[in-house]
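forwarding from the other thread:

> can someone predict this with nicotinamide-adenine-dinucleotide?

sure thing
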Amino acid sequence: MSKVKVGINGYGTIGKRVATAVCAQDDMEVVGVTKTRPNYEAKVAMDKGLDVYVPDSSVKAFADAGMPAAGTLRDLYGEADIIVDCTPGNVGAQYREEYADAGVKAIFQGGEDHSLTGISFNSTANYRESWGVQFSRVVSCNTTGIIRTLYPIDRRFRVQKAFVTLVRRAADPGDSKGGPINGLEPSVDLPTHHGPDVQSIMPWMDVSTMAIKASTTLMHVHTVAAQLEREVSTEDVLEVMKASPRVRLVRNGSGIKSTAEIMELSRDLGRSRGDMYEIVVWEDGVRAVGNMLYYYQAVHQESDVIPENVDCIRSMCKLEEDARESVRKTNKAMGIPN
Ligand code: NAD
């Protein structure tokens, strides 16, 4: 069977990781990535053997820098079965019409609104909704994090209401422009957009959220309080979490006290770029009291959505009908425990 040809528009934090993850699969391949400027990231992409395509307006700059482009964006649309749009938030929307005109499928990221595609994606909760469609959207890192744990808990125990506080990283580690660099910045537009975003995948879920931006680059941390339909034990909840795909339990008691040790763990595991694709739950921080459930989880914003993009390609390109099988394949290729 021939491999699905994947083009990646926007080769930043998410785009470069999607490229690495797609290259690791046996049923899809990267036919090109795009860069707007001939900077160090474009150079590394070329050195890795990736074909770099550029907007018409950048062709000369790349040639002048001694880094000739493989072609223009339009040329890439002709090469690809599907584009994974990893341009900055709200920029992807500007490309939708181009992708439609070129007749190429496209996946957008969480920086775009659900209304752009009308379909949003999570590997476990709604894989089949993107089956064969032209456009879909992988929800944001935070929304992916909330759904990864709340969906399996809801399926087993029925969540009546959930309340999540997000302590958000201020910027990605490779970004020297973001902030605050010393402060905590509450989002005053309440409740925050993350609850409705979860509902783009789980419309029945009664979930509301608040968020605070913190002076850290490593990960987000969520505090979750969920009211369940019935009384449960902490052990019952842990059993569900242990069986949930891409959820990793760690113990404060074993020395993983903060996001710093989680990042050290992913580097120790030898993960590409030190990434932690799983949502990390502190096992000794999970507590059920009556029908209330409390837990903390950490979200590696740079990488938790990467396996979801791979599964989304499989669903949209009809490569694998069974969600669990796609998740298993993606995990195996990326070194994520199944
Ligand atoms: P980024 O800024 O790291 O990368 C974006 C890339 O797109 C850069 O290489 C930039 O040069 C390029 N670009 C800018 N304008 C372009 C244009 N007009 N045409 C083509 N390329 C252009 O951004 P990112 O963090 O990778 O975010 C990409 C998307 O993924 C956004 O929707 C974001 O909300 C979402 N997302 C980001 C994170 C995160 O934590 N970084 C997590 C989950 C989802």
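The longest strand covers residues 159-169. thats all i got for now
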